[in-house]
Design goal:
Layout lengths: L25 E3 L7 E7 L2 H8 L7 E8 L4 H9 L2 E4 L2 E4 L4 E5 L20 E8 L6 H8 L4 E9 L2 E2 L8 E4 L3 E6 L3
Length: about 180
């Protein structure tokens, strides 16, 4: 796993272990240490402000492998918004799109792999949010009884990881790039 920042904490690998970029380039938003997928890196202050300011709504799409066979009831609850704890207070999430993914998505293997339990199924869901509270997807799936085992951000607005492989980096206009973070 990789910290989505350029400074290591507790000896964990971070972005500077994989990429050599200008000193003024920073990640816009973050991925939890246990999460994977799309990360935008930029020195564009206007883009940074637009993507991090809650007044500017943009979609963030995730796929999540959850513990157990997800139910229609849980998906409807996620779509309507659920209560989670954020900064020590109860917060009701905004409505979102939530769908079950049939089968297993084509994603690179995770390193280290998630735990496997022979007698308990795991299912995949796709969530599209317009907000980004700390560990929000994990808190949301846990609130409806299906804790997240694996979480991958696949899109921010119209920027997607599509055919990217772990560690790939692509350029956008200006001094903005994006990468796909997966394990080591």
């Amino acid at each position: 796993m990789v910290l989505s920042q350029f400074t290591s904490v507790d000896g964990k690998q971070c972005l500077k272990d994989f990429f050599s970029l200008q000193k003024d380039v920073y990640p816009v938003g973050r991925l939890d240490y246990d999460s994977e997928g799309l990360l935008i890196l930029t020195n564009d202050a206007a883009l940074n402000h637009k993507l991090l300011n809650p007044l500017f709504k943009h979609h963030r799409k995730y796929i999540a492998q959850v513990d157990g066979q997800v139910t229609t009831k849980a998906l409807v609850q996620l779509q309507s918004g659920v209560d989670i704890s954020t900064n020590g207070k109860i917060y009701h999430t905004l409505p979102c799109k939530a769908n079950e993914i049939n089968g297993e998505p084509l994603v690179p293997d995770r390193n280290p792999p998630i735990r496997y339990r022979k007698n308990i199924p795991a299912s995949w869901i796709e969530l599209t949010l317009t907000e980004g509270k700390n560990r929000q997807v994990r808190k949301m799936t846990a609130a409806v009884g299906f804790p997240t085992l694996r979480l991958i951000r696949v899109a921010i607005g119209n920027i997607t990881i599509n055919d990217m492989q772990p560690g790939d980096i692509k350029a956008l206009p200006g001094n903005t790039i994006y990468t796909q973070l997966f394990g080591k």
